Amino acid sequence: MEQDTAKSQEYPPSTQLLDFNRVSHPLIEIITMPQIHSPATAAACVRKLQAIVQSCGAVTTGMELGGLRADVNVSIRRRGESPGQHQYDGISGLGQRTEIKNLSSFKAVEDAIIAEKNRQIAVLESGGVIEGETRGWTIGSTETRRLRGKEGSVDYRYMPDPDIPPLFIGEDLLSSLTENLPTAPDSVISVLVGSEYNLPVEDAKPLIELDNGLRFEYYHDVVDALRTLQVDQDDKTRASLPRMAGNWVLHELGGLFSKADRAWDADIVPAQSLARLLDQLQRKRITGPTAKVVMSTIFDGDRRPVPQILEEDNLLFRPLSRGEYVALAESVIALNPQMAEQIRTKNQLGKLGWFVGQMMRNGEKGRVEAPRAEEILR
Predict the structure, then answer these.
(1) Between 192 and 161, where is the model more confident?
(2) pTM above the 0.85 mark?
């Protein structure tokens, strides 16, 4: 536990600015043992730590906004040779370490370690000696740079403060904190990939990591509303709802925010609106492309209720009859007889998808269903 002193900002080649506005802000320093052996693992460790401290409210912003910083100590030794002469907290055989200060992203952690590892290898292979020192790193660089030497703890000029008494943390406080901590991120992911939600892990992880948990809360609101709207459906259908909602929250709605370069805001497409839209889609009253159009309309500011949008804009799905499908299929085949013949005689079924696309393009918007179109084409 520390108190912040100041924030330093380097402006090469020789200017250092000090910002004292953060003086006395509380800090917690978490120190790992020297048992991490790859840059990727180090970056993953920092990512995991950030998820944990965010979940329990120890920080409110991530690395990119200054809520967390990483200092990295790097040491190397030649494989197959005698152990190094240095030790840390009982772990011996280490090489001389250097410290890289104030890394502000997961990528910076990984890139800075790689650069410093390569530098130390080059020094040793040229017959040099690694010096204990503090080094800096600038995003986009290929090398770390020396900031100052570091001979040991005396370098920090530590001294006891007679006005600060020892701090004893009782077991009662630890027990209370343990009992009242929120669910840890790994436990949340386990629930999301379990039978209740059935999300793929590649969707579950971003849901809890994005937007400081706001995307996860929004997802829960959508699922709860959708389950209420689909209370009359069978168990199999209801079991598929969380996965469907996850896909739309992450990929479809997330894509709109990315394309517009806007920060996440749950009020732009209210959870209840997305739930009603997905309810209509699941009941096959609208098609997937129509649902995307309506969501984009709401994203752009249309505040009409979803049923009103579908009704007034004539977007409710009206399925084609078999005769209409056949006529549409025959028209696109007649326009492309050579490709149709290749499918018939050479069994080039991969080209069926192109004909399906032509049917959907030439048919009345929103009325042609791809599976039905393929069935008629076959």
Answers:
(1) 192
(2) no
